[in-house]
Amino acid sequence: MRALFMHNVQRVGLRFNYKQEPYDDPRVRQALWLVIDKDEVVEKVLRGNGNIGTHFNVGFAPNESFDELYTLPGYQRDPDGTQADADIAEAKRLMAEAGYPDGFSDELITNVIGCSPPTAQLVSQQWKEHLNVDMTISQYDTATLYVRYRDTTFGVLAPCGSGIILPDPSDILNQWYGKDTMRNALNWTTPRFEELKEAQVRELDPEKRKLIFAEMVDVLREEVSHYLPIGWMHAGGALDYRIRNYHVPRTIQLVHKWDQAWWDENAEKPPVGTGYQP
Hints:
The chain is α+β, with helices and mostly antiparallel strands.
């Protein structure tokens, strides 16, 4: 069998309405993110088919290597391999400082498909256990969820599977940090972040450009932006010459489209080196 395997990555994280209480306080956003066991999400929700979350493409920014991440708050592990007690203690301190020592109740919205529902369920369990934050999970079809994205009629949203179309971190900037976009309808930014966005466009040296993104990561961590990463999910598909009328997809949104395809067991196997003919 001759087959082509196509690979793509998708983001798993939290999106906050940072202009709505209690999420308008960065201490609350940071606390909720700190107590999430990212490794548990990768293991139980992504079934090991992924990695802990970074702000940009995995390993692109020098300060988002996995070795460094595991030394940082929110990713640390205790010597026995469990989630760091220090992160949980810091989250509780931040909640108390923000005025929520006993937690709060709210709605956590998510999609009805893919890994979104189990992500929301696991995250809400961790929030309840560590911070007494009691979330009612509301699930929506994609179209309705996008309306709530656009209209910002939510407090916190747990999406799982926002596909990255281009293999360059600038696509993340376009989707999540561009102004007047669906995933940044409230136009979160800072003056320095805007300067860095412009600088990375003009920088032609790849290594210098990575350093610009590293500074962006520092800004995102310090400001605790509207989006906080949990993990990366790997996705892909296989292509065989006996699958007819299926063309190599240009984006993740097309990887799983099989409406017009069919299997032809008697299809003629093309000679090696001639390429696939759908």
